[in-house]
Amino acid sequence: MKDRFFGELDTYLFHHGTHYELYNKMGAHIREIGGVRGVHFVLWAPHARAVCVVSDGNGWTPWRDVMEKCDDAIWELFVPGMCEGVKYKYLIVREDGSEVYKIDPYAYRTELRPANASVITALDYEWGDNEWRRDKKGENFLEKPMAVYEVHLGSWKKDLSKWDEDQYFDYRRLAHELAEYVKYMGYTHIELMGICEYPFDPSWGYQVTGYFAPTARYGTPEDFMYFVDHMHKNGIGVILDWVPAHFPKDDWGLANFDGTPLYEYADPLRAEYPEWGTKAFDLGKKEVSNFLMASAFFWVEKYHVDALRVDAVAAMLYNSFGRAEYRPNEYGGNENLESFEFFRHLNSILRSRTDAFLIAEDSSIIAGVTAPAKKGGLGFGLKWNMGWMNDSIRYYNTDPIFRPYHHHLMTHTLEYCFIENYMLVLSHDEVVYGKGSMINKFIGNKLDKLGSLKTCYTMMMGHPGKKLLFMGQDFAQEREWNFRTGLDWHLCDDEGHRDVMNCWRTLLHLYSERPVLHNDCGGPNTFEWINSGDCNRNIFTFIRRNPWNYNNALIFVCNFAPVERYEMGVGAPVEGTYKRIFSTYPDGSSLEINTVEELCDGRRYKLIFNLRPYESCIFEVPYKESTPEEKIKEKQVRSGIKKAHEEVKSDFSHVPDVKVPEDIAEKSAVKKTASQKPSAKKNTTKANAAKKK
Questions:
Q1: What topology does CATH give the domain 523-627?
Q2: 391 annotated active-site
Q3: Taking the domains of the chain in order of start, what are their residue ranges?
Q4: What is the bridge-based pairing of β-strands 189-192 and 196-197?
Q5: What whole-number distance in Å separates Cα of residue 338 and Cα of residue 434?
């Protein structure tokens, strides 16, 4: 081929797993050659005997647009006159002579299921979120509030005016209605389930076929760009669920793509996840790991998303996950060493070049998931705290009479909560498959359940870590989540459910306003028990504070018993007047209490007040002028936090040292090595450097 679109440098970087902007070259791209406008196709199919493009542009006629194999693995074709909106597939001839139609793994857009053809798309959109991106530049997200609203777009609300079965809102309508609700409630981020294209609705988007295409269920790629843009304009961050662990077996998808196990493992003991009936990505192939890394960069760069929540991390880290028989690694263990290397590489390069980060949905016992790669960690920004979630729900499921015997479930989580950068989650997984909604995890009548849920949310807000709550649980949805139907918004008209919503809303705003609640950089010194052993009364009392003194500190008192405590005594850290700024009872704020000099909870001062059944309260500690010693400590702590953040941003310890051969570098006009670190002033890939020069 005279005009190679996928040049020697692209090929070299791709085969070494370091072509991070691969989405700009692989797939179908509108371009102009010699004054002729058309579409250039690039495909990786090393074992195919022949490949052609079939489309509605050529009447779906095979072998009219035949691709040329430019080296041992890459196929290319420029089709003059082809334009945006054309639907297409690849017809691949396997080594045995059989033929199969495949979608484009790098397609930017697909048809609405059950159709599955890829669609030519230019991804043209005029972004208006410059202010948001500028404000996020170089930000340490661990110091900022992160209260996440997890949403399944297809079942958040239904458009009852539509006659079709789905009754989906489109991305643009969702953008406006969701942004209004999220801002009103006080969430800082929204996390979207199942946005990468997928064929099977009951998978909720976790069996992906389009790693570069937003699902067509709710509109076009441009519509989804509008969605993200509108969220950013309203000060709301966007997190996408991303699935690099596995993919479905559909014969038109990635499975046995060129007639061989290309994207999946060939080893039958590693090729599948039997529990899910899906294929496992072969991260030992550089081209496959590059495909997934390019997908992560794609959503960050092209769609401006702020973070990716990585699904099923534990499945990737263990060869034994969900398998009765597994292949040990080279050292005889069950860890998937290729996944470890993949995450270290991806997290290092993504956090170094962008302000985005990955969040691990991880149930493993692997240490250092959020530690930098150069310190032996995997480099994730945050990790879901599955231990906190499981232990808390076990406590909630216990009758208050027996809770004294399970008190440790609520206190044990504080023993490890600073080991990783955690996010506390009450996600969709906890309200499906017979688990019941959040309100029905508690014992008692409806009033007891409503009161318990409010105290649960208060305890959650006081516990260290970022926060995530699944849609519907903020107004105490009673039935389990069903992806086919909308939420029961009519419950908000009920006084009890509306009270839960108002309680959670107040907590969300309090969380964002108070740094002692959302700044997770201070470590263990930001949490302090007042009484962790009040098991017989089912009460937990603790302090959230800054690491140098009690200024701006908050005292939490959480009562998980249906019993009123008269003249309740709580130890206070300093003398003075304490203001109750929050109560789970609607009439419970605006109370000031003076300390009594009396020993309580091992402290010199004591607060005395009445605590009602299932009531939780938050008290503001009186402000005292910082001493010179405290000011010095504050300066030291802030300096340490800044240094740690800078170290993470500069972590290239697991980026492969791939040097471009001189002949390729000269042809591509590239004088830097492929792994050379971008400077602080100019952060471009080598491919961009070549293009500009």
A1: Immunoglobulin-like (2.60.40)
A2: no
A3: 8-119, 154-368, 523-627, 629-692
A4: unpaired
A5: 35
Q: Which fold has domain 154-368?
A: TIM Barrel (3.20.20)
Q: Is the peptide bond before 114 cis (omega within 30 degrees of 0)?
A: yes
CA 237 from centroid of its chain's CA atoms: 11
Buried b or exposed e, range 35-46, using 16+ CB within 10 angstroms: eeebbbbbbbbe
pLDDT tens-digit readout, 213-267 = 999 999 999 999 999 999 999 999 999 999 999 999 999 999 999 999 999 999 9
pLDDT at residue 692, as a whole number: 39
361 assigned to active site: yes
Condensed to tens digits (0 to 9), the pLDDT of residues 21-70 reads 999 999 999 999 989 999 999 999 999 999 999 999 999 999 999 999 98
DSSP string, 560-590: -SSS-EEEEEEEESSSSEEEEEEESSTT---
Backbone angles phi, psi at 612, to 5 degrees: -85, 170
**8-119 maps to which CATH number?**
2.60.40.10
How many Cβ atoms are within 10 Å of 590's Cβ, its own excluded? 9
The answer for residues whose C-beta is within 8 angstroms of residue 158's C-beta and 6 or more apart is 167, 168, 169, 485, 486
Give, in degrees to the nearest 5, the angle at Cα 556 between 552 and 557.
Answer: 150
Mean pLDDT over the full length of the chain:
93
Choose the catalytic residue: 65, 76, 191, 311.
311
Write down the residue that tokens 């800078």 correspond to: 646
Q: Please, are residues 348 and 655 in contact by the beta-carbon 8 Å criterion? A: yes
Catalytic: which of 10, 282, 306, 361? 361
From edge to edge, which strands make up the β-sheet containing 272-273?
246-247, 278-280, 272-273
Residue with tokens 């989804």: 224
- Name the 3-class secondary structure at 543: strand
- To 10 degrees, the CA torsion angle through 413, 418, 419, 423? 70
Alpha carbon distance 689, 684 (integer Å): 7
Instruction: Name the helix (H) or strand (E) containing 34.
Output: none
Tell me whether domains 8-119 and 523-627 share a fold: yes
Which positions ≥6 away from 191 have C-beta within 8 Å?
148, 149, 150, 151, 239, 240, 241, 309, 468
Question: Which segments within 292-388 are labelled E, that is strand?
Answer: 307-310, 357-360, 382-384
> Tokens 């359940």 sit at which residue?
449
CA distances from 639 to 55, 454, 609, 649 (A): 59, 37, 40, 16
- CA–CA distance, 631 with 636 (Å, rounded to integer): 9
- pTM as predicted: 0.94
Q: Which helix (H) or strand (E) holds 20?
A: none
The 10 Å Cβ neighbour count of residue 331 is 7
Q: Which two tokens stand for residue 423?
A: 């996010």
The Cα–Cα gap between 464 and 418 comes to 8
Return the beta strands (E) in 202-247 as ranges.
210-214, 237-242, 246-247
Tally Cβ neighbours within 10 Å of residue 302: 18
